[in-house]
Amino acid sequence: MLPDLTDAGGNLWQLALGAGKDNIIYVVNRNAMGKFNGARDNIYQEIASQLVGGEFGMPAYFNGRVYFGSVGDHLKAFTVSNAKLSATPSAQTAMTFPYPGTTPSISANGSANGIVWAAQNGDVAALHAFDPVSLNELYNSNQMGTRDQFGAGNKFITPMIANGKVYVGTTNGVAVFGLLKG
Fold it and tell me: Where do the DSSP E strands lie in the chain?
């Protein structure tokens, strides 16, 4: 779900969004869902051909941007303006995420100091941190050799942020990331 948004005409919109196996981003009006209409669908906005693979997770929202991480694709940011998503990504990561893609999480101090976190599945999994505007990588858990590595990946994991730490589910436990002392 997105926060309440106002379009160019001053109309207030309450929107939700998502994507699935068809690689299409759907934005819907939360106040006008359902009911068959033979003349047209009730989709507020539909964006096709911008996600490479299916979306098996969910997007994240921060400061006017929505982040999607579909299968075999870059993590992509779409800007929100006048109650619409941009038709093309405003930024994307240099790397791609193999099956099952990634479900991003956000940490921030209110609307400042945001970080987009994404877990990468694979024989050697990785936790990545990205700048929320450019999606340039700030950190990944494989940068320091074995110090921050946490083993094989686990499908459909979403980084969880609490108490200044990032928690990532593994195949046999939980990896915890935080600032080093001293």
Answer: 5-6, 12-13, 15-19, 25-29, 43-47, 60-62, 65-68, 73-81, 84-85, 91-97, 105-109, 112-120, 126-130, 137-140, 160-162, 165-169, 174-177
